What we know:
Elements: E1 2-6, H1 11-23, E2 28-32, H2 42-45, E3 53-56, H3 70-82, E4 87-91, E5 105-112, H4 120-128, E6 134-140, H5 144-156, E7 161-166, H6 171-176, E8 185-188, H7 202-207, E9 219-225, H8 233-243, E10 248-254, H9 260-267, E11 274-277, H10 282-286, E12 291-292, H11 294-299, E13 304-308, E14 311-315, H12 317-329, E15 346-350, H13 354-365, E16 369-373, H14 377-387, E17 390-391, E18 404-407, E19 432-435, H15 444-451, E20 455-457, H16 459-475, H17 481-497
Amino acid sequence: MICVTIGRGRHGSLLDEWKAAAQGGAELVELRLDCLRRDVDLKRVLAERPTPMVITVRRAVDGGLWRGDEEKRQRLLREAIALGVDYVDLEMDVAKQIRKFGRTKRIISYHNLKTTPEGLVDIAEQCDEMDADVVKVATLAKSLSDAVNVLHVAQRAVVPTVAIAMGEVGFFTRVLGAKLKAPFTYANFNPDRVFAPGMPSFHALKKDYYYDEIDDQTEVYAVIGDPIGQSLSPAIHNASFRHLGLNKVLVPILVPAGRLGGSLDELEWLGIKGYSVTIPHKEEMVTLLRQKEDTVERTGSCNTMVVEDGMRAGYNTDYRAALDTLEDALGGRPQDGEASPLLDKQALILGAGGVARSLAFGLMHRGAGVSLASRSDEKATKLASDVGCRAIHWGNRASTQSDILVNCTPVGMFPKVDDTPAPPAAFRPGMLVFDTVYHPEHTMFLKLATERGCTTVTGVDMFVHQAAKQFQIYTGLEAPMQLMRDVMKGKLSSVRET
């Protein structure tokens, strides 16, 4: 179940939003009474009760807005209990001062907005001993280790426990709590009002993660990278899983550069079945595999990893997806015995990361001539040596003659949508210009190309193709590609509107 948090400055606005949440499908609502700017009229607030509710009056030290004295705050909590609210949130340091009464269930909570302390399991056990119906532990996660430690609290809990690692690195704890039998998780209803770092929206939990369908039998997958917050992989894969009746969920996990191996070890206890691997881990992942498909060996890049019989097996779905996308744009993929339309074409690739590596090997394999340019001449030279093509200086990218220009850098990715990796002089009529960035779909790079008479290909098609191949590796089933494309277009459209 998802508990929708609502907090407004006026009683009328609070009640209106509560009704809207109920109409939107919310089954439980947390009313943050500390947000009200005037004295709380609890009888007015509770007159209609469109859904079951949690009454919370959060102090500033715990991330709230309560302005009154502590005695008044505790009187308000006792009044809520006397009026028979469904739940009341009591911080562990005051829980013993407010007795249990009637049917109201007690959420005994611990919040730490600065760090995730050691001994978190002990803290949760102390909450349990205070006549708790539900234990809530919410701490700020500064690392993946912090987030994993928070989930361990839920794993070891005896009473129903909500364990949340706040912040981007802990986002996945808000989703996977359901697998560990958390009674609910928290989400905001109004996107303009976020009450804790990393708190998701009610809509995202329902539509992107199918939260209410997650249980202790759900198989877990993850997309890992840095940055990771804007990844569309969860929405696309989760919609596809549920469309085919598969009890699986894919979550985003922030893993900084240089920490991949240790992070995979820390996550092992969760039994994650497979990983979508993105920037900056595609090359490092290769060193951590026990089994590799030929394209991983050939390109030195892995964007898909699954755990098979306890061993990590790696795949490269970028390779095939990128080539399919380019060949489709040039008239179609070759049939058996036919030459690729990429044969003898001259391609300039911007970037020297995992996608650039996959594309360079693929284009060379199809008979194209390839040049590489990167802001790091050293990286471009190294990759060109590995592939067997040539490297050019970044400053010469606009003057290099090519039939195909491909951006494999993150430049132009949301939110820096006005950036472009190439100046206007790089584009000439008749060129095929391909941007592997898909968020936004129509980047500044592609807009400049269109203005100068180029044929353009967006990153959406490549992303959907590689996601479909990942899905088949994860499930053994053919992916619902049109559904994937529709979900992706919908997500990109919603970002443009915000």
